[in-house]
Design brief:
InterPro entries: NA-bd_OB-fold (IPR012340), Ribos_protein_bS1-like (IPR050437), S1_domain (IPR003029). GO terms for molecular function: mRNA binding; structural constituent of ribosome. It comes from Ruminococcus albus SY3. Belongs to the bacterial ribosomal protein bS1 family. Pfam families: S1. The longest helix has 11 residues. The chain has a five-stranded mixed beta barrel. The chain has a five-stranded antiparallel β-sheet with strand order 8-7-6-9-10, with no helix packed on it. It has a five-stranded mixed beta barrel with strand order 11-12-13-15-14. Helix content is 12%, strand content 39%. The chain folds into three domains: 103 residues, Beta Barrel (OB fold (Dihydrolipoamide Acetyltransferase, E2P)); 85 residues, Nucleic acid-binding proteins (OB fold (Dihydrolipoamide Acetyltransferase, E2P), Beta Barrel), CATH 2.40.50.140; 72 residues, OB fold (Dihydrolipoamide Acetyltransferase, E2P) (Beta Barrel). It has five helices and 17 strands. By secondary structure, the chain is mainly β.
């Protein structure tokens, strides 16, 4: 099942390089039904994708560009947006004429195999690799295998609230996610359960330390500052502070029974940093139940899969 990865993950693999280097090797891949990857360099006026190959070129006809194109359930923007990116495909034919060698390819066939042999077998709680493809205010769209999309709603990205998914992710980022629910072929994902419980995150910090954080919200009673994607603390109100700014903060206290972190703001400045590298506490396996809250706390935060 691990071979059905997001597009781009096998492009530089020894196997992929071997099969796309010549027409003979690609014919072998066709006979074996192997899914390969190449670089899409153009989308024609007919919306056929042109794939660059070492020995010639590949053509993915419009109707073979993605599952749902023929039926009208997938829009042509799904093809246009693949230009200058890696695409997966199976080989349907290899034609040699006076113009050279052209491979006739099908991305749709690769996606159909991925649906049948991988995605249809996923269960709630499965932790899977994914790649961020684009970000919207309501969530992050990701590739979960062979270019097939899924969504992580914004409230499922992290425990610490963010104003937009680009606070946490960037396009092209490799991440992990867990299957939250399944409706037919539609898979909805969650991400926050992989980023650690309150106790796991709090154990990284100690009272008396001064650390960096990001201001996530400014309220009349205080300022919420994120120390980690699944851990935020509260500092006293301060003028001239706004959400999105970076801060250096002194950790006054960590209180497990209340799941609170008391902070004192040392300095505030503009946040010019790229989204931080994500540190996963879970990156494989299957979740049945995940509890964020501490044993001492009266407040319960639980995810059931």
């Amino acid at each position: 099942m691990t071979k059905y990865l997001p597009e781009g993950k096998v492009f530089n693999s020894p196997e992929n390089r071997f099969y796309i280097q010549s027409a003979d090797h690609m014919a072998e891949a066709m006979a074996k039904g192997i899914i390969l990857e190449g670089h899409a360099v153009m989308c024609t006026t007919e919306h056929d994708l042109v794939v660059e190959l070492p020995f010639g070129k590949g053509i993915i006809p419009r109707t073979e560009g993605a599952v749902g194109i023929s039926e009208g359930t997938t829009r042509d923007i799904a093809l246009l947006s693949r230009v200058n990116k890696t695409v997966c495909f199976k080989v349907n034919d290899i034609i040699t004429d006076e113009k050279g060698v052209t491979a006739i390819l099908s991305r749709r066939a690769a996606q159909e195999e991925c649906l049948e042999k991988y995605i249809s077998k996923l269960q709630c709680g499965d932790v899977i690799p994914a790649k961020v493809t684009h970000l919207e205010p309501f969530g992050a769209f990701v590739d979960i295998g062979c270019g097939l999309p899924s969504l992580i709603p914004i409230d499922a990205i992290s425990v610490s609230r963010i104003s937009h998914p680009n606070d946490r992710f960037f396009n092209g980022q490799d991440i992990y996610a867990a299957v939250k629910n399944i409706s037919g072929e539609r898979i909805c994902l969650t991400h926050k359960e992989l980023l650690g419980t309150w106790q796991q995150n709090a154990s990284i910090f100690s009272a008396g330390e001064t650390v960096g954080g990001v201001i996530r919200s400014v309220e009349p009673y205080g300022i919420f500052i994120e120390l980690a994607p699944n851990l935020a603390g509260l500092a006293e109100p301060k003028e001239g502070v706004s959400a999105g700014q970076a801060a250096s903060v002194y950790i006054k206290a960590l209180i497990p029974e209340k799941m609170k972190v008391k902070l004192i703001i040392v300095d505030v400045f503009e946040n010019l940093c790229f989204p931080s590298k994500i540190n996963y506490f879970i990156s494989s396996g299957r979740l049945n139940k995940w509890e964020y809250s501490t044993k001492e706390s009266s407040k319960t935060m639980v995810s059931i899969f």
